[in-house]
Specification:
CATH class of one domain: Alpha Beta
Largest sheet: 8 strands, mixed, barrel
CATH topology of one domain: TIM Barrel
Distance between the termini: 74 Å
CATH superfamily of one domain: EAL domain
Mean pLDDT: 85
Strand order of the largest sheet: 18-19-21-22-23-24-25-26
């Protein structure tokens, strides 16, 4: 795994952990806050429950008080009516009470004299004579002038039925003369205290000021069935007991908690205000706590679930973000074709490696595959990509610790490699060349893959350079040997840099020179040696008259312009200038003249080549076949079929086409056989003296003879002496171009020469 990538992964992991820790802390904080809130709500709910218990007790107290007060009001009214009678006759009072009792809710009613003897009259019409109640406390209290209600007792007349006695004094002339006694079923009050408390888990009783239980509700339960006193319910603390005793004594409300067999119980005491009675409402504290504990647990579970869901969503989102981040990092730092680091990542990691190993020697290299465009075109882009991937895999296999590489673009690779001796780098390069050729042999049909590599060595570093600067220097070295045959590798030197700077400067000057028209036409006459040496035309040659550097030879700038592509602009500039001159020449009424213009290999393969040249010809209205386009035979090696098609189209558009430098390189008879060219220019190399002059002249003579048979005119270029002229004339060569007749000359000088000759023969220059 790459060190830079590990650092990115570590940073990503650290960022993820940091985010997750923060999220967990937030969740814990949220959970803690939620718990505090829940406990606060629980306390409020407990208070509400206590309030509810108080309200239940108060409602029971109000209802009991209202019921008893109403009953007393009824009895007080009857007692007043009885007391107002003139004569208090027991039989008369009995008959009155019997009639009254038929119209009220009491089950029994009667008048008791001071001796406590009473006749009871039931609501159903029964009479109970001479019942002695003299010992009953309610009778005795009533004689003292009080309205009294008894505790709940079993009915002595109807066993199994429970009743309450009501007793009110009867006054006659402001003196208590007897007691009005009424009986009501205990169920009347019991219905009031039977009101459910906390879903029947609580209960309400009526007690008196001494703590005795007067009446139990149906919800009291078996556990309290034998309890007759308040202090038997459970255990109270000393403080609570004192408060309870004080409340009973003073008839005040009280809320308290006591311990029972089933746990803590909450109790509320409310004074009825009658007879010293109290409403006692009791509920287990666990009911309230259980209810709200369940609520709290439910809320806590909901909060926990929300936190877990949040953390899960965060985790899921983090995974998605991490995946997206990795995809972005891959898009930003990984080459999609090779799967290795891209140029951006390489430069980041490379700077780090060089920084960490300042004293270690490293070779910064730049490499490409020669004529890779040709391989793509020949074998297809898919196979081309496989070759690049194969080279990447080989580089990876040969990588050592801290070795890095990347694909810069297309077939260009760059990298860093450690070494002890430079010979190690040379051996490594040779291994790469051998292995890549062996690996892709099936894809290139045994066509060898050639690599070109430049290496900058850090042990030569005399100044502080960035990695980008080192890569640029390695690239300079690589470009300096790119035109050499076969796989090549060289080390960067200052001479290479100086040459590169010079070429870069010249390229910049060349662009400026085109704009300022510093390039001028020189004409070299073409002499028809078969027709008395008359001028048959001329070749337009370029010269650079630089304002900064003076006259610059074509040998200095043409090769450079061919590498940079500026030669295309120069070709078109020269062609238009030649057409412009020829138009002016013809407009002056001068005789027709053939003008040849050179076309570079790059210029020929421009998409708009035919369109542009034909357009300029039409623009200047140049008659057909006065313009000759010269192509070098090296064009044939690039794409012979395209060249053949272009030649045919050009001829249809009124151009002559010539093949220049024939015999300088890999000339083939196929050129003469397959191309319908008009002119064949024999290269100057044919006319250099060799070891066997006879054999050379045999070759030249037969070449000219074959051209004649194919109706192709021949021009001998570079001829420098009269003996060569005589030989060429003897074998039938048509035209000679060379110093033997004239050197290239400026347009004005050439024009003056034409005016002077006026069609006459041009003299041979003296040797």
């Amino acid at each position: 795994m790459m060190k830079g990538k590990r650092m990115i992964d570590k940073d990503n992991q650290h960022s993820f952990v940091k985010t997750y820790v923060i999220a967990v802390i937030i969740c814990i904080g949220f959970l803690a806050f939620s718990l505090l809130f829940i406990f606060h709500i629980m306390r409020l709910n407990q208070q509400e429950s206590a309030n509810y218990l108080n309200e239940s007790a108060q409602q029971s107290q109000t209802s009991v008080e209202k019921q008893i007060s109403g009953d007393f009001q009824t009895l007080d009214g009857i007692a007043e009516c009885v007391g107002d009678l003139d004569v208090l006759n027991a039989d008369q009072i009995g008959q009155l009470l019997k009639r009254i009792n038929d119209n009220n809710v009491f089950i029994r009613m009667g008048f008791a004299d001071k001796n406590g003897i009473i006749d009871f009259y039931d609501i159903n019409g029964d009479t109970h004579k001479n019942v002695d109640i003299s010992r009953e406390y309610f009778f005795n209290d009533a004689l003292t002038g009080k309205d009294v209600i008894s505790r709940t007792v079993e009915d002595p007349i109807n066993p199994g039925q429970y009743i309450n006695y009501y007793a009110v004094p009867i006054r006659h002339n402001n003196e208590v003369v007897g007691v009005l006694c009424a009986v009501n079923e205990a169920s009347v009050l019991r219905k009031i205290i039977d009101t459910p408390v906390f879903n029947d888990r609580g209960f309400t009783n009526i007690i008196d000021s001494s703590g005795d239980i007067i009446m139990r509700s149906a919800q009291t339960g078996e556990r309290y069935s034998n309890v007759t006193k308040l202090n038997e319910l459970g255990i109270l603390s000393v403080g609570e007991q004192e408060k309870l005793n004080q409340a009973l004594k003073e008839g005040k409300s009280l809320s308290f908690v006591y311990d029972s067999e089933d746990g803590k119980e909450m109790a509320v005491l409310e004074p009825v205000g009658i007879n010293g009675w109290f409403i006692l409402t009791v509920a287990p504290q666990s009911i309230v706590r259980d209810y709200y504990n369940k609520t709290a647990i439910g809320m806590i579970l909901i909060v926990l679930a929300a936190c877990l869901i949040f953390l899960y969503l965060l985790y899921h989102q983090s995974k998605i973000m991490s995946k997206s981040r990795n995809e972005l990092l891959r898009a930003a730092y990984v080459d999609p074709l090779t799967g290795q680091r891209n140029n951006t990542r390489f430069r980041i990691d490379g700077e780090e490696v060089l920084k960490e190993n300042k004293n270690a020697p490293y070779g910064i290299w730049y490499c490409d595959i020669k004529k890779f465009e040709f391989l793509n075109d020949l074998y297809g882009y898919e196979n081309g990509d496989k070759i690049l991937k194969c080279l990447s895999d080989i580089l990876l296999d040969h990588s050592r610790k801290d070795d890095l590489f990347c694909r810069v673009s297309a077939d260009n690779f760059a990298g860093i490699r450690s070494y002890h001796e430079r010979v190690e780098l040379t051996d490594w390069f040779n291994e790469l060349v051998w292995e890549i050729s062996e690996s892709v042999m099936d894809k290139t049909r045994h066509l060898p893959i050639e690599l070109c590599m430049g290496i900058y060595c850090t042990d030569d570093q005399s100044e502080q350079l960035t990695l980008n600067d080192m890569i640029d220097r390695a690239n300079m070295a690589q470009k300096s040997i790119k035109d050499q045959v076969g796989s090549q590798m060289t080390f960067y030197t200052e001479e290479i840099r100086n040459q590169t700077i010079k070429e870069t400067e010249m390229e910049a000057l060349g662009k400026e020179a085109l704009e300022k028209e510093e390039f001028v036409i020189y004409m070299q006459p073409k002499v028809n040696i078969q027709k008395n040496n008359i001028i048959a035309g001329a070749e337009a040659l370029v010269r650079w008259n630089s304002r900064q550097k003076g006259m610059i030879s074509p040998g200095e700038f043409i090769p450079l312009f061919e590498k940079t592509g500026l030669v295309v602009d120069l070709d078109r500039y020269m062609f238009e200038k030649a057409c412009h001159w020829l138009r002016n020449y013809l407009d002056a009424g001068r005789p027709a003249l053939n003008v040849a213009v050179n076309v570079s290999r790059l210029g020929l393969f421009q998409e708009d080549f035919v369109e542009y040249y034909s357009g300029i010809k039409q623009k200047y209205r140049i008659p057909d076949f006065l313009l000759e386009l010269e192509f070098t035979e090296s064009v044939m090696l690039d794409d012979s079929s395209t060249f053949k098609n272009v030649v045919e189209i050009l001829k249809k558009n009124g151009f002559r086409c010539s093949l220049d430098d024939f015999g300088s390189g890999y000339s083939s008879l196929n050129v003469l056989k397959n191309l319908s060219i008009d002119i064949l220019k024999l290269d100057i190399l044919f006319f250099k003296e060799g070891t066997d002059l006879r054999r050379e002249r045999v070759v030249i003579a037969n070449t000219v003879a074959m051209a004649k048979e194919l109706n192709i005119k021949t021009i001998a270029e570079g001829v420098e002496d009269t003996e060569q002229v005589e030989f060429l004339k003897s074998i039938g060569c048509d035209v000679v171009q060379g110093y033997v007749f004239s050197r290239p000359m400026p347009l004005m000088e050439f024009d003056e020469m034409l005016k002077t000759l006026r069609g006459r023969s041009i003299d041979v220059l003296k040797d």
